[in-house]
Amino acid sequence: MKPSEEHGRQHAPTKILLTSISAMVAETTTFPIDLAKTRLQLHGESRALGSTRPTNAFRVASEIVRREGPLGLYKGLSPAILRHMFYTPIRIVGYEHLRNSLTTDGGSLSLPAKAISGGLSGVVAQLVASPADLVKVRMQADGRSVSQGFQPRYSGCFDALSKITRAEGVGGLWKGVFPNVQRAFLVNMGELACYDHAKRFVISNQISEDNIYAHTLASILSGLSATALSCPADVVKTRMMNQSEIKVGKIMYSSSYDCLVKTVKVEGLRALWKGFFPTWARLGPWQFVFWVSYEKFRQIAGFSSF
After folding, report:
1. For 209-240, how does the pLDDT look when each residue is reduced to its tens digit (9 = 90+)?
2. Cα(227)–Cα(190) distance, rounded to whole angstroms?
3. 268: left (phi over 0), alpha (psi -120 to 50) or beta
4. Is the dihedral of CA 234, 270, 146, 153 positive or negative?
5. What does the alpha-carbon distance between residue 180 and residue 174 come to, in Å, rounded to a whole number?
6. Per-residue DSSP letters for 34-56?
7. Rounded distance, CA 180 to CA 171, Å?
8. Which residues have CB under 8 Å from 42's CB, separation 6+?
9. N or C: which end of the chain has fewer CB within 10 A?
10. Is residue 272 a contact partner of residue 259, using CB atoms and an 8 Å limit?
11. Is the pLDDT of residue 56 over 80?
């Protein structure tokens, strides 16, 4: 075993802790944008019933505040925090370990190799965190049902886990896992590879030193890349995870492919990028807050830059 690999494994628990803290800070800061994105992606489902009108992210957010109050913008925050306690450390630390294992003599991986490493790390992380993601989507969608006069399905994070398990079985916690994993592969392929590559490009070309300016430029580029690649899978994932046999009597989509076809048929191809701007508007600030925090925490802990 190489000394660098042994050193990295010894400090893996500390890196996991730092990643979790940074992710929780970023998630809390940008969660209202994620909520607006989720509600916007679910908006078009009622077109099949012939009743909806065009909307946008700002109108959705305004409606949430009007009907549910300012705290309505944080509906589903607890499972989101829970999700990132597993999802983000696995994908970030996993990617760094893969990258360091595949490089020799201080060299750098090619962009395609970084993309594959990022995608695989995201897949493993999402398989572990998928139940928390399911609960987050259900609780975010619950706020919309409450505003329409219906009773919420769940009173909290653990109530949701319990009810889903009883009604849909343990496997129900992984409902929508296939489109979820697809999205995770695409997001992390774009986000991790692009951030890593863009930051090294900025530094190596002396555009900036390894500081907040370089981190900001890299996070903006990685946010755009990740959003463009993942938005269609994100729409399908959100709709697949939101459906519940108890809620509608029968499922609306039999598979992710069925969801994809029905979405395009009813709402058009552009619906696959529904929520693109709020997704990007969230990914940009999320990555900025996360990477700046994480890089700073690593520096304080005595680790090298990511």
Report:
1. 888 888 888 888 888 888 888 788 778 877 87
2. 8
3. left
4. negative
5. 9
6. HHHHHHHHHHGGGGGGT------
7. 14
8. 141, 144, 238, 239, 242
9. N
10. no
11. no
The answer to whether residues 259 and 240 touch, using CB atoms and an 8 Å cutoff, is: yes
Q: What are the residues whose beta carbons fall under 8 Å from the beta carbon of 224, sequence distance 6 or more?
A: 280, 284
Q: What is the pLDDT of residues 20-37, one digit of tens each?
A: 999 999 989 888 887 887
Residues 104 and 173 sit within 8 Å (Cβ to Cβ): no
Q: Which residues contact 97 (CB under 8 A, 6 or more apart)?
A: 8, 12
Report the alpha-carbon distance of residue 63 to residue 147 in Å, rounded: 9
Q: What is the pLDDT of residue 259?
A: 86
In the block, tokens 């975010």 appear at: 140
What is the Rg, in whole angstroms, of the alpha carbon atoms belonging to the chain? Answer: 20
Q: Which amino acid is at 184?
A: A
Question: How far apart are the C-alpha atoms of 33 and 37, rounded to whole Å?
Answer: 6
Q: What angle do CA 36, 38, 43 make, to 5 degrees?
A: 90
Q: Phi-psi region for residue 200, left (φ > 0), alpha (ψ -120 to 50) or beta?
A: alpha
3-state SS assignment for residue 209? coil
Residues 6+ away with beta carbon under 8 Å from 105: none
The Cα–Cα gap between 201 and 217 comes to 10
DSSP 69: -
Among the listed residues 245, 233, 230, the one whose alpha carbon sits nearest the alpha carbon of residue 280: 230
Quick check: pTM over 0.70?
A: yes
In whole angstroms, give the CA distance from residue 44 to residue 199: 38
